# Entry
Amino acid sequence: MKIAFFDSGIGGLSVLHHAMRVLPKEQFVFYADEDNVPYGVKTTDEVKGFVQQAFDFLVGCDVKAIVVACNTATSVAVREMRHRYDIPIIGMEPAAKKALDLDGEHRVLVAATPITVHGKKMQILIDRFDKDHLVDLLPLPRLVEFAEREEFRSEAVHAYLAQELGRFHLADYSALVLGCTHFNYFKDTMREIMPENMHFVDGNEGTVRELIRQLDARHELEDLPQTVDYYYSGRRVEDPAELARIARYLKRLDFVYDIR
# Structure
């Protein structure tokens, strides 16, 4: 049986990319809801509907687990999906706790989509772990649009990030939490703007580690040739141009993978 990864668009490829490295003998399904991206500026009810459609499709594919490789979808709908479906469902959590644990003295900046930044789940997370009030939040809605256009190193991207990150005195911060899976594509540009004392933290490693833990507990880890089937909003991706596009994103992720 295969492992499904679901995202509003191609951001979730960053989670799949890590999983492909550490699970070389698993087979995967990747579902990008390209018809409805971006989720981060939609209403909560709209996102819940999109997630429900995706889950109905993926469960019909007889997958053994679903990784919600989208912080926005996790924030809005993952709890409800866990009540509806009897398979492991692993969500993305902004890695604010991890960032605080790594330092504990300097401030932490969490970048995410507007719906994640303003959502109840984020507030609960901060109330639980940010006892010293060290976390600040930064919505970056345009990064999703840039990523979906494969626009990673343009003057517009640099200007946007410089403006938004420039709202904060970054020398006071130890970490930038990438609270949206689309944001990993921009680590090189962000690195140019951030001071040396800041480092990146994301939830990809922890999410895949939890996936492995749950599958191991169920004795469902495989020993098969690695494959990936790609779907856009339920349609199998077979067009060579689209498969080449996905390959370019994965190559980009190879490039930024070790940027800290």
